[in-house]
Amino acid sequence: MTQTRDRILFVLAAVCAVLLCVDFYKIFLILPDEANQGAIYRIVYVHVPSIFTGFTGFFVALAASGAYLVTGKLKYDAFAAAVTEVSLAFATIVLATGMIWGRIIWGIWWAWDARLTTMLVCWLIYAGYLMLRRAIDEPTQRARLSAVVSIFGCVDILIVWKSIEWWRTQHPAPVLSVRDGGGMGPGMEAPIYWNWLAFMCLAAILVMVRTRQEQRSREIDSLRRMAHSY
Amino acid sequence: MIDARNFTYMFYGFAAAFVILVVYVVSLALRERKLIHEIDRVRRMVEREK
Prior knowledge:
The complex is a heterodimer.
Chain A lengths: L1 H29 L13 H28 L2 H32 L8 H22 L3 H28 L23 H40 L1
Chain B lengths: L3 H46 L1
């Protein structure tokens, strides 16, 4: 079992490394600067794949939370917690890279526009999810409340996703052709999706490591209970 | 619009993403080490109690 797991981790790491090397070669050495933004537009190749990865993770956590509420099995709760934590790391990257990009393009680090504000709220909801887990010791109560917060958080994700269509504020309207945006220059859009795949491999590695830690924590809890029962 | 600051801030953007990931990976590694120590300690405690 451990050997299979290690092999999967190795394959995922290799795929991630190859994809990132090829993509970064294209991004920095082949693709030209964008006509209006210059070199800074390349942040899109980290910014957008990170949010795709983060949101995919949050929806996987939603499914795992739902599975916990239906079955009552704590392994689903542990998986949801692992996925949420990793997804939050990617959501943090989105906020950080967005602010740096905005500093050049808008001249400001932050604007209280619809997309940025809803994304910050999303980040706070999932940060709150992790804080809630630390605050509650009883495993079933922790799992039930965490599942509710996870479901609540996914509602905000839909608002974040649609915010640039519902409200026209500072953040650009959809650009990617998959969202019926204007699209990018020839060859400029594909690396976004390849980077998303690479980030998903990386996220899968981190989730596997984090899930094992959750299992260890549960093992420690059961050993402690055993020690107290003697 | 296109000036040297663009390159600097592009570098900051990629660096920020890299730093966030590295900090998270390091925190995972530290937590892993702590859990392994803790599991060994509790196992020894259970053995003593038996």
